[in-house]
Amino acid sequence: MTSQEQTEENTVTTAVANPETGGSGGHAAVAARTENVTKAYGEGETRVLALDQVSLDIHRGAFTAIMGPSGSGKSTLMHCLAGLDSVTSGRIWIGDTEITGLKDKKLTRLRRDNIGFIFQAFNLLPTLNAIENITLPMDIAGRKPDQEWLDQVVTTVGLADRLKHRPAELSGGQQQRVAVARALASRPEIIFGDEPTGNLDSRAGAEVLRFLRRSVDDLDQTIVMVTHDPVAAAYADRIVFLADGRIVDEMTEPTADRVLDRMRHFDGQGRVS
Ligand SMILES: Nc1ncnc2c1ncn2[C@@H]1O[C@H](COP(=O)(O)OP(=O)(O)OP(=O)(O)O)[C@@H](O)[C@H]1O
Questions:
Q1: What pLDDT is stored for residue 133 in this prediction?
Q2: Which of 193, 255, 186, 196 is nearest to 219 (CA)?
Q3: How many angstroms does the Cα of residue 270 sit away from the middle of ligand 1?
């Protein structure tokens, strides 16, 4: 097979289960969708193809993990999906709305109203207590929280007796759970987490992951999480594996052992051997 043929064959590797139920048509099963998304950084000799024809459906009400070697394009994919970065070509939908081509103002509003973020650094304001941090994005947007939903989130997150504590008075795991509750508070269409447990020890990390899992199972949330950690990825319903900016594999109902095993079968390029 020539390298051109190889490239073309790889191009058709997608994780779109069935275009009939794709997000572009506004169907309920898909919370976000990319279609042939390519993202290049730089020009000429310094050009890097961070994403190369990525087509992916993110299922609604499911927990999806994105894995792959360093530099494989995980963060770029998440940033493009979340409308934080533009694409070079291809199309992206959040729910029924195509975000590629949206003007800044509309994109900012869509992000604010439909997307929740959980980053590795908790990004909590030190002078606000837990509940104030949780409702801050809604306060800024001038939206009143749905009290019943907020109570449910706070109960699920297990922080009901810590709501008046400031971040410095909470453990790392509790702080990250506040960050998770903040992402959930406005009931977004989808939540993106970039290594959300990366800064936590394994016990606190497990606490946060269990909560993310419960928010999918009990609150019907949609979560996409980038992670390097097979144990963290095993909490997901599905793992999408990236290498060199392409989707090279996926796994459903993962266990940490199966993920480790699969990672062992990647060669140096991250491709399946
Ligand atoms: N702003 C940028 N300018 C130039 N190149 C970039 C930029 N952001 C990312 N890249 C390149 O794009 C490729 C994908 O990067 P990305 O951060 O998405 O990978 P990743 O899989 O998230 O990596 P890691 O696991 O190390 O965080 C890398 O080769 C990276 O060097």
A1: 94
A2: 186
A3: 15
